[in-house]
Amino acid sequence: MNLEKMNIGWIGAGKMGAPMSGNVIAAGGAVTVFDPVADNLAKVTAAGGQAGTSNRALAETADIVVSMIPNDAVLRAVTTGDDGIFAVMKPGSVYLDMSTVSPEASAEVDAAARAAGIHYLRAPVSGSTALAEAGALTIMVSGPREAYDRCVPLFEAMGAQNLYLGDSDQARYLKLVVNLLVGTTGAVLAEALTLGRKGGLDWEQMLDVIGVSAAASPYVKYNLDPLKARDFTALFTTEQMVKDSRLICDAGKATGVPMAIGDAMLAMFEETIAAGYGQENLTAAIKLLEGKAGLGEV
User: Fold this and answer.
1) Angstrom distance (rounded) from CA 116 to CA 283
2) What is the extent of the structural domain holding 162?
3) Which of 123, 139, 168 is the last residue of a domain?
4) Which residues are CB-contacts of 126 (< 8 A; sequence separation ≥ 6)?
5) How far apart are CA 27 and CA 241, in angstroms?
């Protein structure tokens, strides 16, 4: 199906949802969007989307409903709650959730979707708001293959690559795997930089060497310039990292996987929030450790 022929409903137009839906609109998609925050809704309508009056209203006529929402509770409310969209979506239509939620909640939604004759795709994304704006996200997808094939034009409008992983909740687990690596990298980077400063290393030189070392990664590299400038403007907040860290650790416990490193990561970011850095980028953990080590600003 061509993007121009899709009747798309979109739920959630926040930091990620607004640029993602905007890219679909720019690629020719007819998008009706609803978000309870008026400013969020205005961003998408300014980009050419139509304003919906409610989640249910846009879901009644949509061929595909996309959601980019905060957590398990909202996923359940949007799909199967008192005003949930599954009660009004057409049989054979597609529900495409691109949020980061637990495999447990996702499995509940899958069962409800099957009962309603709805094709349910899980398509969480990897990437920052900047990559969302550029249409360069990595999109991990699982669910019915037929539904995936129908949605490929959507994915191409939003991402640099999309990966089909299987017919169940594989995408949910891969997103948690990726975020475990991102979070632990951020946490150990904070420890390493604090140790380096305590040992008398020049801040910028230390970061330059890390950037060309065996420990460099895409995540480390795109954080180097903000760290040099001591810029902790949020691309992914510490509060978001704590939310995802809890999902990661809970999934480990549910599947019998030891999560000693994940638990330590969660504890560090929880402490970073307690220190007042919850709305800053997750790299702000460095400020927590510098303070505990008796270091001031560079």
Assistant:
1) 43
2) 3-168
3) 168
4) 137, 138, 139, 140, 175, 178
5) 31
192-243 per-position pLDDT tens digit: 999 999 999 999 999 999 999 999 999 999 999 999 999 999 989 999 999 9
Same domain, 7 and 129: yes
Tell which residue, 1, 74, 61, has the closest CA to residue 31. Answer: 61
Total domain count, the chain: 2
Strand ranges, E, within the chain: 7-11, 30-34, 50-51, 64-67, 94-97, 119-122, 125-126, 137-142, 159-166
Q: Is residue 298 part of a domain?
A: no
Which residue matches tokens 């020719």?
A: 28
* Catalytic positions, written as ranges: 175
**249 and 263 Cβ atoms separated by less than 8 Å:** yes
CATH value at residue 143: 3.40.50.720
Cβ-based neighbours of 203, under 8 Å, separated by 6 or more: 197, 228, 298
Q: CB within 8 A of 29, min separation 6: which ones?
A: 3, 4, 6, 8, 154, 157
Is residue 24, in this structure, part of any structural domain at all? yes
Q: Tell me: do 51 and 100 sit in the same domain.
A: yes
